[in-house]
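A reminder before we start the practical. When you read a complex entry, don't treat the lines as separate problems. The point of joint prediction is that each chain is placed relative to the others, so the output describes one connected object in space. Small molecules and nucleic acid strands, if listed, are placed in the same frame. In the example below there are two entries. Take a minute to note the order of the lines before looking further.
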Amino acid sequence: MKLTLKIWRQNGANDKGKMQTYPIDGIEGDMSFLEMLDVLNEDLINKGESPVEFDHDCREGICGSCSLQINGEPHGPDRLVTTCQLHMRSFKDGDTIVIEPFRASAFPVIKDLIVDRSSFDRIQQAGGYVSVNTSGNTLDANAIPVNKQDADQAFSAAACIGCGACVAACKNASAMLFTSAKVSQYALLPQGQVEAATRVENMVRQMDLEGFGNCTNTGACEIECPKGISLENIARMNREYLSASIKG
Amino acid sequence: MALSGLFLVVFLGQHFVINITSVIAPDTFNTWSHFMGYNPLVQYVLQPILIGGVIVHFVMGFVLEIQNRKARGIRYAKYNGAANAPWISRNMIISGGVVLAFLAMHMYDFWLHEMVYKYVESNPQDATRYYAETVEKFHSPVKTGLYVLSFGLLALHLLHGFASSFQTMGVNNKYSAAIKTFTKVYAILIPLGFAFIAVYHHLNPITQ
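Here is the predicted structure of the whole assembly.
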């Protein structure tokens, strides 16, 4: 397969950056998108050029590291997959593929296609946890009965890998889906009730401080999320936030 | 934003109920319009609340738009928004802007006229004038066309905004499908009804 790649190149956070075109040949349909970039980088290194920097870790769709905007969509045209799970068979011979970093003011570019997503970490640190004393008389987790439906919904919310596709897809660069998933996974469980009010208030405050946009319910985040995180989580977070605000 | 939007949706329904009487029962239209124009509760309590609701909705809309644009400082070279969200949900600022422009024209046509009639010219109360005045407003084909165009954009705005406001207020449950269906019916029928009233009066310029 012969392709033309248009890739965002930016030599550091302060560089202006620009799109650069690379022709590439010999790409197999069974290759993953990241393997295709590996081929490109080997070629660039052999030519003495700087390789294209991009984030990756597990290459199994669970770490949330790979974060590429491919032809105008986060993680490319396929649904419920991360960039590392996207195969080149999704493209045709002769295609031009535009590859950019996830764009958001809260995700500044570090280099080329790598963005700084530590804003997500700070949102999580603001309240995305349950304070449990893990030393001494630790309770058996199964000692607290949990409704099956709640457990399933909490697990679905906890499936969020924090890749940032929701922010990248949203026309407002909103982080509501990510934040709401992290709020929901605790809000649905009895262990999360004690800190429920402070959790949602602190996480939403941090989300706003990071400079993410507002949710206008376009639903793009849900469509592009590789883990299928539902918009129901945003509604749940809004309920939690309203409830916390009323209780003061 | 959601609350003010829902409030305006309810007002729109009430406005339509009164307006449609201008087609089916002009005398009733005159009676109701006179009541709305001179009832102290409507004039000094409900009307200021309505104006406040409109201002809050539009100001919040523009503030959110500015914040949202700032949240993505650098635009994508290629952004395939149509792949994951309908045009109407991504362009509420356009449909809302057209509705705002329409509102300015509508206020000039009817509200300002009323203010001048009642408070500047200090005319005596006349409960029979409203139907004739309304029909006269739709004499111009250009103005009628602008009204119909605006109602089209209003329909697009409602198609996303109505159901969306429930999601913002935390309502996403077994009733959501029914809310979305009702949104489609309301968002199409009400603006279509308003457009029908405008065209009807344009084609039937008979005054009482």
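Discuss with your neighbour: The longest strand of chain A covers residues 3-9. What might explain this?
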